[in-house]
């Protein structure tokens, strides 16, 4: 072990290897624009799974209008590169998603800050509340209940009364 540590300590970068490579701002902006069409996702699974089956299942489930490239970039972490931002937004709007009863946590990529790449602790869920009286189906009561179990998502499509039998919380 000491021998390996000694060899490691003697490693150094030569002048040639330390040379800085300049990249134009237009190339950087093109990359950032492409990344913004993508999602990062982590499959919360603790057992081995067929990654090809996972990729094909997600593509089939999402019923996209345009292409999608899925690349594993970490342990159970995937980059979903959509050809069209509308497809990406549709996938986000219909979450949560699962594969083999395991949650797939999805989030947009924020490449400008590179933060949160490993934080997959939150996602949105639809919850269904039963037996609420009609006068209890207001937007405000929905938000109170949502804030009690998590953070309620504000939905401008709802009026002051929510007549449906479900509310969106995340």
From TrEMBL:
DUF4283 domain location: 35-111
Residues spanning the signal sequence: none
InterPro entries: At4g02000-like, DUF4283
Domain of life: Eukaryota
Protein name per Swiss-Prot or TrEMBL: DUF4283 domain-containing protein
Organism, as annotated: Parasponia andersonii
């Amino acid at each position: 072990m000491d021998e390996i540590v000694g060899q490691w300590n003697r490693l150094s970068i030569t002048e040639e290897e330390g040379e800085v490579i300049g990249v134009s701002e237009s190339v950087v902006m093109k990359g950032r624009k492409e990344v913004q069409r993508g999602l990062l996702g982590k499959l919360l699974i603790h057992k081995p799974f067929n990654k090809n089956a996972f990729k094909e299942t997600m593509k089939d489930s999402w019923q996209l209008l345009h292409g999608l490239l899925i690349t594993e970039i970490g342990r159970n972490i995937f980059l979903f590169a959509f050809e069209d931002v509308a497809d990406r937004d549709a996938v986000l709007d219909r979450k949560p998603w699962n594969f083999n009863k395991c949650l797939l946590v999805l989030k947009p990529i924020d490449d400008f800050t590179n933060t949160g790449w490993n934080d997959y602790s939150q996602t949105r869920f639809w919850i269904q509340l039963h037996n609420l009286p009609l006068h209890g189906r207001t937007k405000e009561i929905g938000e109170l209940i949502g804030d009690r179990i998590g953070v309620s998502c504000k939905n401008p499509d709802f009026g002051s009364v929510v007549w449906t039998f479900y509310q969106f919380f995340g």
